[in-house]
Amino acid sequence: MAMIFTSKSMFALSLWTQKEHYEIGEPISVKVSGMPGNTNDWLGIFYAYDENEPRHVVYKVALKGKKEGIFTFPSLDEVYEYEVRAFIKLIRIFQSFQTG
Q1: Strands 42-47 and 28-33
Q2: Residue 27 to residues 34, 36, 40, 78, 80, Cα–Cα distance (Å)
Q3: Is 37 exposed, middle or buried (0-12, 13-18, 19+ CB in 10 A)?
Q4: Host domain of residue 19
């Protein structure tokens, strides 16, 4: 689980995958809470060592103002280490997981 606490905005964000290891073909479930609820906040799955460039996003979901919930991404078809990353304006929060 990845958590961030900020004194300036007074919210605590939690982001975690429901498992640390997923099989090939298994959907990826991500639970998030404490998001600020901005309309442009989003979650993305990236290869663990890739930059935060839009071209590196494997899957992306817009939160559309939601502050918490469980979000399901399609299954991944490659054995690799991935990260799910939450984007709030310019802040990035991430949680690693593996497939295979």
Answers
A1: unpaired
A2: 23, 26, 24, 13, 15
A3: middle
A4: 2-99
Q: What is the pLDDT of residue 59?
A: 95
Average confidence (pLDDT) over 90-98: 71
pLDDT at 4 over 50: no
pLDDT value of residue 2? 47
CA 5/CA 8 separation, integer angstroms: 9
Cα torsion angle, 9, 35, 53, 45, sign? positive
Number of domains in the chain: 1
Tokens 């799910």 belong to 84
Q: What's this model's pTM, rounded to 2 decimal places? A: 0.77
The domain that holds 35 is classified in CATH as 2.60.40.1930
Which residue, chain included where needed, has tokens 């958590």?
A: 3
Q: Give the position of tokens 């071209």.
A: 55
Please state, as a whole number, how many other Cβ atoms lie within 10 Å of the Cβ of residue 47: 15
